[in-house]
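User: tokens in, sequence out, please.
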């Protein structure tokens, strides 16, 4: 037992706490009989609760999402922050998907275009926020390909009413969203079947 510089207390050799000198013998007898140091976290634990402490704090558990094994005390943080199978949402379409697939999905989803109603230009979704903060609202009537312009000229020559560019862009946007949704559904079905087949083998 080490003596503390203060003569009125001493350090318990078992739990390393400062104890009044007059009580050190009684404390040490009780402490060494009833407490033990956890070999993992070094906390002093009542002997009767040592196994419970290990199971509730340090016992390895598997993540139900990705099957990675870790200590129980970090499982909640893993599920919320690190698990590759945790569900996150795409910043462009708010579609929920596993975190491991997010980068690939956003690469495709962020390249989709939307018509800016201020300047009439098609803007990539990944550039939308920067564009909206810089857009001066000057209309750009050059939107569309030369094929669209030739078709519009033919309609005018034939006397047909000209199709509104906004109607066309809405239909195109709806079509793009539908195609993207179908691609995501097919991809998730393929991934689910691939996962099921790997678990069977």
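Assistant: Sequence out:
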């Amino acid at each position: 037992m080490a003596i503390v510089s203060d003569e009125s207390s001493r350090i318990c050799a078992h739990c390393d706490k400062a104890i009044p000198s007059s009580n050190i013998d009684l404390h040490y007898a009780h402490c060494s009989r009833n407490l033990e140091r956890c070999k993992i976290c070094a906390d002093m634990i009542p002997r009767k609760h040592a196994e419970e402490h290990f199971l509730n704090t340090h016992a390895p558990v598997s993540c139900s999402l990705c099957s990675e094994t870790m200590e129980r005390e970090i499982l909640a943080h893993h599920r919320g922050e690190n698990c590759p199978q945790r569900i996150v949402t795409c910043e462009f379409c708010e579609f929920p998907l596993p975190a491991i697939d997010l980068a690939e999905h956003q690469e495709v989803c962020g390249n989709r275009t939307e018509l800016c109603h201020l300047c009439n230009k098609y803007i990539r979704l990944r550039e939308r926020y920067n564009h909206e903060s810089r857009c001066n609202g000057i209309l750009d009537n050059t939107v569309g390909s030369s094929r669209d312009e030739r078709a519009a000229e033919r309609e005018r020559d034939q006397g047909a009413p000209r199709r509104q560019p906004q109607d066309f862009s809405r239909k195109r946007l709806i079509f793009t969203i539908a195609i993207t949704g179908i691609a995501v559904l097919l991809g998730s079905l393929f991934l689910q079947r691939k996962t099921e087949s790997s678990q069977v083998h």
